Amino acid sequence: MAKVEIRSESCKSCGYCVKFCPKGVLAVGDKVNSKGYEYVAAVNMDACIACCMRARMCPDAAIEVYK
Length: 67
Known about the structure:
Blueprint: E1 3-6, H1 16-20, E2 26-32, E3 38-42, H2 53-57, E4 63-66
Antiparallel strand pairs: 1-4, 2-3
């Protein structure tokens, strides 16, 4: 099973990872980081296929995917 690590302090809530994840694993959460952004959270990890698409799309390198 894949593991997704999100560095919440690096996330600017741009939504690219949410938009480009083919399985809908991520969503913008309701928690806020120290910069005032609602950061992304994994909401459907069972569907993750570890394609790493969301990590590649993140302009702030806030996501790591481990197989």
